[in-house]
């Protein structure tokens, strides 16, 4: 079982439009509504793969009730923490060329009692979990050290932690030695305080995060592929993508693929890339099923192309 923790979940609505025209009436060709939040998406991807997952998240108001209902319909067990504020609602506008415009609400402010209840629920729900995936931004009311506290408590209970967050929350949690952290290129650049222009720059940044406490770094480099740096060395993987339809949740699908495949080594990296490549070719935040994956198209190598210039350099 993979348990996910999403401190700031959302109800996400995605509209597909021929082209976004500011100041005009835009008519959607399609729309869908999904439970959102990075940890929620990881749970959705795990469930789509036919594996058991439990989602721990604070929920409040009508949007929160709808998030729980939608998750249940997808076969995901929900361990909710009731909060006074309403769960946030987000909007994404997807264009045919892959351009995505997102409007994310701030979300409710959690009280100290609600924050402690969230930690307690993680502890009680994580019995038997192979991994705990802690994902996303922290809502108002939670200190940057909240993830660090969660990692420390989880490790004390013998659990493995995958962490996907950024900024001060990531920096604070590194001292507790999360088993794997999953930044994208921009988050990796922010964490080390310098721009990343090549794959080699990303490798050096990942190694720096390891010196700060991360046991392994799984870095998403956008269209260029993904990088894994751990005790055994560095690995680079990529896969061709014919058409990018929506990148919402693609990084979360990648993390799910990594954990589903054991959470370490080249095989898990290949699974991560296959899941991410499949996800970007699906509408909205639809998560890939095993039938959507093409592991044979993934190229994994320990001969990392250090001099390759990143398609989207991180600054």
Automatic annotation (TrEMBL):
Know the name of this protein?
A: 1-phosphofructokinase
Q: Does the keyword Nucleotide-binding apply?
A: yes
Q: Which residues form a coiled coil?
A: none
Any idea where the Carbohydrate kinase PfkB domain is? 15-287
| Superkingdom, taxonomy of origin | Bacteria
UniProt cross-references to Gene3D superfamilies, sorted A to Z = 3.40.1190.20
| One of the protein's GO biological processes | carbohydrate catabolic process
Q: What class of enzyme is it?
A: transferase
List the InterPro entries hit by this protein, alphabetically.
1-PFruKinase, PfkB_dom, Ribokinase-like, Tagatose/fructose_Pkinase
Which GO CC annotations does the UniProt entry carry? Answer: cytosol
Transmembrane segment boundaries: none
What organism is this sequence from? Answer: Streptomyces mesophilus
Q: What GO molecular function terms would the record report?
A: 1-phosphofructokinase activity; ATP binding
